[in-house]
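ingest -> fold -> write
write: protein_1
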Amino acid sequence: MTDAVGAHMRTELTSQPETWARAAGMRAEQALLPAPGARIAVVGCGTSWFMAQSYAALREAAGHGETDAFTASEVPIARGYDAIVALTRSGTTTEVLELAERVRGTTPVIVVLGDDTSPLVELADAVIALPFADERSVVQTRFATTALALLRASVGESLDAAIADAQAVLEGADDPADAGAPALADAEQYSFLGTGWTIGLAHEAALKLRESSQSWTESYSAMEYRHGPIAIAAPGRLTWQFGPAQDGLRAQVEATGARFVQHPVDPMADLVRVHRIALDRAVARGLDPDRPRNLTRSVILDA
């Protein structure tokens, strides 16, 4: 292996505190998003879909109106949404382009993207461009979280604590010091859990480890985990909760012999920790997360 393996992912994931701060301050761009009270759909593919899930939960919880999240290929446009918010790093994903074309002239489409030269710009009613968060690595890190930082700020959340927590994670200042506990990067299997807006983060954490290091991962609503998925918990495996855990969950997981992980940091900063683990596991296995097998930067389907 050389120092160049995973170099793009490393640069991009470590830049997240800076890109979050920049996105949080983009007040004019945040004003382009649907106004409170609008009934909207938020769409994306892969990682962007999971960020859409998080934004949908946050927007509704903030009282800004009914907000549904869908993969771009499964949007029920007959429901008559007031607007569609599309998240896409490249702006070239086939399903997102096709959706924008289908609703053009009938439903406003606001896009949040990384590449502001993409063909989606011409189809959108409003564009929020984050080129400073775009990436060269196939495996996404900073674009997804930077988009979510902007969206969190748009519903009135402060990102100050999240930024500070992410910086501490990157510096290793808050790594757990559980005596005798194996390193987080050494688990045989990972189950990621969330509640509310952090369910999307759990799904994204599982995807990151699968994409980058071909690891065995699963993800669930925390309350749903005990309705069957906990059967996979065992010694050498890990159950990771984003945000506060429900009473009794830790004890039930630890009774299986699995390790339960929950860090008292902003959940988006905890996702940065997963990014770092994903990179380390990939490199240790002789894999390059900048160019993972079977994947490309954008899914462009043949006609």
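write: protein_2
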Amino acid sequence: MKIVFTFPGQGAQIPGMLQDVPHYVKKAERIIGASILDDEKAFQSTIWIQLALFLKGVAVAERLIEKNVCPQFVAGHSIGAFAAAVISGVLTFEDALKMVWHRAKRMDEAYPEGYGMGVICGLTEREVKKAVDLAYHVQFPVHLSNINAEQQIAVSGSWQGIEKAFQFAKQFGAQKTTILQVPIPSHSPLMAELSEELLDLISKVPLNDANIPYLANRTGRMLSDKNKISEDLALNVAFPVRWNDMTEVCVESGADCFIEMPPGHVLSNLVKQAHETTRQIVVDEVGLEATQYLIKKWKEQDE
């Protein structure tokens, strides 16, 4: 059995999600010098969403590893990539947290209101790109964003631009359009300036080559080289997350079990739709003990 730990991105957050990881919260608060919030009001800001997702992902993954549930690959979606980098051994918890803190604050400052993300289902990447190109206006920008599945594509930009893109997408036969709970235009050229800042910031941080192969957001490729991974962490904010390619590469490399770190089950659903023969465990739904039991049971069956 080859296991993939997956780490969700923004949109997965749930108020109160940090209540069972107080040790990590206190440790993070000492590092950044601020009280960390995870209530509904706080989650209107990308700052607290990103911090919460990072902390929860690292905490649960480390608990699983302590229980001898160890991954052969790590794949994080957007902010989840930083938790993946910590688990793969590329960045220390402290250095990754500082990067996440800077990233989140700058994203919040750059686009405090009027921008976000949406998803179009039922169209190909090429068709969504056409809808986005038709909808784009310099005053109300919108860009093609994350490729979550063959026919589930995110768009990013101004709310006006997103709504316009949705209108064209429906004309082209889109099955569904949805606004995401993401208050920033992530994974688009609107974040290019921040990606350059992050490149400079991460160049000053000590890095290690990955102990566990890391799936790159920007290219979908499997990486172990510390410099290529650091580049992916810095630049992914301005480029689409190619989640569909990331999971495809894992499966081609023998992965047959995907374990999704809390919160939520979105990534597991996407993998199951694309790769029906793989096994999924959603830690949020079954808990740590059942996750450990299932892995042990499946390993014995495979032997």
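write: annotation protein_2
Residues 46-66 form the longest helix (21 residues).
The chain has a mean pLDDT of 96.
pipeline exit 0
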